[in-house]
Amino acid sequence: MVDLQGQYAKIKDVVDASMEEVMNSAAFINGPKVHQFQKNLEDYLGVKHVIPCANGTDALQIAMMGLGLKPGDEVITVDFTFAATVEVIALLQLTPVLVDVDPVTFNIDVAAIEKAITPKTKAIVPVHLFGLAADMDAIMHLAKAHNLYIIEDNAQGIGSGYTHKDGTKTKTGAIGHVASTSFFPSKNLGCYGDGGAIFTNDDDLAHTIRGIVNHGMYKRYHHDVVGVNSRLDSIQAAVLDAKLPHLDTYNNARRNAARKYNDAFKNHPNITTPSGLTNCDSICDTCDCHVFHQYTLNLKGVDRDALVAHLQEKNIPCGVYYPIPLHKQKAYTDTRYNEDDFTITNQLVTSVISLPMHTELDDEQIECITSTVLDFINSNS
Ligand SMILES: *Cc1c(COP(=O)(O)O)cnc(C)c1O
Questions:
Q1: Beta strand 121-125 with 149-153: parallel, antiparallel or unpaired?
Q2: 25: CA distance to ligand 1 center in Å?
């Protein structure tokens, strides 16, 4: 699904030099590289504060701790996402409230959020799923009207831009009250191990969070709040700082691969290609709409699992993100859920398939993947 070796080979010199700096300085924890990467990412995103941490799941948890959410507070998020999003809500003894997604964008359905708001609702966690920004203007509007916090789960969306209704642009992760991201190796900006970060434009919240990631310490050995130990290693920061200047190029490569996939599948009666490229139909290097963490087709009248098996047989990697709605996972079932409220997610888990998507895909690979998919669908639907 990804080609991290091919990507590394092209930037080996800078990555190795950056890592060597850390090794030579032996500043493995909170070294200057961490600070340097933090500053560079703040500039790139146009956000006031980046607080690095150990992984994307911690980032979400720490964001919620920083906001002071209390047991019993309800947090609305999506049924169709990676489990980390709902996991930390439950772990903090907050009440997760899962809602359905939009059938076209696969992102949180704003009407469903509105329906789920109660007097106990304190926050909404939109996920920029597969690299496409959620409907942030509408979500921020709801937040304002109901006095709710917005925590963007930007683990799949780093580098993506969001165009507001007035035409201005903001990077995802710089819109809500706070945001989280992951630097897991296969993410769009990945390190060579685990890593994550929290973003916010709020000075007070940033201060609170900087203490939480470091055992609740604001002054050495003074623990004012219950915190955690969640750090980005200097070595990982060195990798990330070497890769950050390439992020836009990487995301362009993903978008251009997505365009080629779209061309191959367009107008096929059994295939819906991803939304999100509609405003830029030609190759452009300035566009930052969809960053294609995943390239996901929605199939109709096709046995998706048979296609998965067929691709596996042909040694073509593919994935199903996600095969089970979160509200049907043992850990997250809740008697108050009603199946009628999850019709889109219940459908998508049976009909989506994600194809290889990374920075090193070439035309020959794309042609091989698309022709294998099309041959199967044309002879089995
Ligand atoms: C990857 C991911 C996370 C978790 O990130 P880790 O660094 O693996 O902890 C959270 N949310 C979403 C949507 C993700 O894709």
A1: parallel
A2: 31
Nearest partner of 30 among 58, 1, 51, 15, judged by Cα: 51
Asked if residue 281 lies in contact with residue 340, where contact means CB atoms within 8 angstroms, the answer is no
**pLDDT block averages, 10 residues each, the chain of length 381:** 93 96 95 97 98 98 98 97 96 98 97 98 98 97 98 97 91 97 98 98 98 96 96 98 96 93 95 81 63 97 98 97 97 95 98 97 97 97 81
CATH of domain 247-380: 3.90.1150.10
CATH class of 4-245: alpha beta
Range(s) of the chain covered by CATH 3.40.640.10:
4-245
* Ligand 1 centroid, distance to 57 Cα (angstroms): 6
The verdict on the CB of residue 292 being under 6 Å from ligand 1 is no
Per-residue pLDDT at 1: 86
Q: Is 107 in the pocket of ligand 1 (CB under 6 A)?
A: no
What is the four-CA torsion angle of 350, 353, 354, 356, rounded to 10 degrees?
150
* Strand-strand pairing, 352-355 and 295-299: antiparallel
CB of 257 within 6 A of ligand 1: the answer is: no
pLDDT of 279: 55
